[in-house]
Amino acid sequence: MVAASKMRKAQGLALAGRPYAGLMNRVLVSLQERTDPGQHPLLNIREVKKELVVVLSTDKGLAGALNTNLFREAAKFDSAKTAYIVAGRKARQFLGRTRRQIMADFELKDSPAFAETKPIAQLCVEQFLTREVDKVSVLYTHFINTISQKAVVRTLLPISNFEVAQAAKEGGEEKSGADPMIAYVFEPNEETVLDTVLPYYLQYQVYQMVLDARASEHSARMVAMKNATDNAHQFIKELTLEYNKMRQASITTELLEISTAQMAVGS
Fold it and tell me: Per the domain annotation, does 173 fall within a domain?
């Protein structure tokens, strides 16, 4: 019941932010079509010599295979060329056991606010702009529905045209035809607006991924607890049946012994 209550709240937060993220993506698609993406440092694609991966896991267990699937994806990265930022006690323990480099560790509340996840995105941008890393990815559990969650790896930096356009299709309604933002005028100019919007876009993307991970966590935990409860009830039924059988067999044996003894005395 506790997991179900938390699940409904987490799902509401995760789903409520998707329309806003979709509209933001459409604005970015429109901006990129009017500017030269190669001029912005957050859009520059370069050879990946060092990668930074943000892992969003749970703080507690009892969530089924959610963390197992997440860590299976984390183990695929080359430990020699990868550094990690973790948000979640289970991820910290896994990376510590496997001797992987942890750059930073963030503790988030059960229902984190935007301001709490903002430092994660800021650290990622700082590492990318200073060329400490050449690529930033986020590994988290994407919320699909109550019984379905999937561990995914999404590239955060650099932002490419294809990824932003694809995110726009996923986040909002895709309309064929002309640019939906064609009637808007960007002041003072498109390049300045892009330079201002992109950092905020990254911060909101991280926030939305954290909300998705929380919704997946509580959904998986509720399903796991329900399965455990159902299995416990079934186990109780089986044990009760077995107990009744043994009790009946004991009573039958005692009756036979009494009858045998009475017949022996009578004879």
Answer: yes
